[in-house]
Amino acid sequence: MVEHQGDKIIAEKRKDLRFCQERFTTQFEVPRAWHKAPLPMVESKAKCKQEITRGIYTSITCEDKHIIKPTFGSYEYVEAIQVSRLHFQSESQQSPAAISNLQGRLLSRSLKFDHETLKKDPRKVPEMEQLWKEVCQKTENGVERETAYLVDKAIHAMRRVPEEAMEQMMQKIRSGEICSKKERIESLFMDSIAFIQEPNSVKLMVQEIVSNRLHGGRSALYVAALYLTPRPDLQAIEALKPLFENSERHPMAALAAATLVNTYCKHHPQCRTEAPVRQAAEILSRKVQQQCSPSAGEQSMKEALATLKALGNMGVMPTEVAQPVIRCMATKGVWENVRVAAAEAFRNARCYKENTKELVRLAVNREMDSEVRIASYLAAVKCAKDEDLQELISKISPEENTQGMHVYDFCMVVYPFLLFTVI
Questions:
Q1: Under DSSP, is residue 134 helix (H, G, I), strand (E, B) or coil?
Q2: DSSP-H helix ranges across 331-401
Q3: How far is Cα 268 from Cα 115, in angstroms, rounded to an integer?
Q4: pLDDT of 78-105, one tens digit each?
Q5: Where are the domains of the chain?
Q6: What is the DSSP letter of 24?
Q7: Do 311 and 284 contact (CB within 8 A), yes or no?
Q8: Model's pTM, two decimal places?
Q9: What are residue 4's phi and psi, to 5 degrees?
């Protein structure tokens, strides 16, 4: 809003940060709270009032308001309001000292948040060790008030150290080198790993999960941490391999690990050509081939269901990975919900012509179960070309059954022009 008052212009600007599409690691089209965090932001607004007299800013007042509240378990919330004011003092032809003393080349930077993680600094290792020694002192005869503050500082230091330093630190704590009462400090350290949310913590969490040393809430904490790690690197993806190899014993962790691969691929579009990503998808694909069989027992069917869900979370489905999944969809005698899950495994996948053709073939096959055909249709239509849509609609919509009605209703909403062209 702009208001003119003679030589003065008053401009007011308002922004609701929930509408920013690039406010998080991936784009979002709708305004809503960010639920992938322990304390999501439910309100975030900024308001600025600028007064300009004859081309000079004479007064700027900005107010930022943020409200955060726990995702679960509490009705309390935190409201923070910050007011900033800038007033014109004097006019001068000389450059301010802060600018005139600048040396070197200036770099142009965007005001958008940089999602790249900071480089790991080995010089932070002594600081991290010292902080955990201080935590040890504060917990020697109970837990003092300053303990939470020190643990928080230690977590910040842990985010900056290399992966090997984290492993060495864990060994020192377990050996009693950092603290004589190692049980208590080890418990705090192992819990804090889940809150680092950096690639250097992934390997430690995977090792703990696979070794079956976790118990109680820490297992769920590590699974959630894998889901929420925002900036995984290729080294972290490689560290996930034992979870995929042992997905039968750790299905929930494998689902989280697959989501972490998907997060990596969102930031690295060429991820499917990288060996750790490709190997992770191939491991799950081979498991589908073994588990999805009519002769398999109930346990194998449950394992196949979890494996297919993990593949769906991962979203890496090149043709060679997809072949066992498509065979699973077409195999009679396999549980119907497993075959539907096989179709839904394509939900995050890129489009491959060969995969789309196979999905279309299953969707128009009248000998297939209704639910499997509908799931195949929904998976195929996302990547279908004009000729694929023509085949789907011309062969399915005339059918006087469940799938025919489903396709007809779907096309009336999404592709009405094509439906009437075919009919």
A1: helix
A2: 336-344, 353-363, 370-381, 386-396
A3: 13
A4: 888 999 999 988 887 777 676 667 777 7
A5: 2-89, 229-350, 360-423
A6: S
A7: yes
A8: 0.73
A9: -100, 130
